[in-house]
Amino acid sequence: MKQQPILSNQRVVLLKDIPARDLHKGQVGTIVKKLYSDVYKVKFDYTRSASIEMAVEQHDLLKLHYVSSSSTKEKEKA
């Protein structure tokens, strides 16, 4: 099954280690832009002043999903 595209500024999790760039599975990044059909430029923050941007294939990323507190409260009422 083909994954849905990820939009700019969405948060993602890295699904594999990338030792050459000192990135680890589970690290959270932000999509900067789509480069090709299944490749994205992702920004990973190390500290407030240090980050790295690199191309990552979509199958190595997991899009994070957030539920707002108002959505949770509405479901509890139902």
From TrEMBL:
Stored InterPro entries: DUF4926
Matches recorded under Pfam families: DUF4926
Organism superkingdom: Bacteria
Protein name: DUF4926 domain-containing protein
Taxonomic lineage of the native organism: Bacteria, Pseudomonadati, Bacteroidota, Cytophagia, Cytophagales
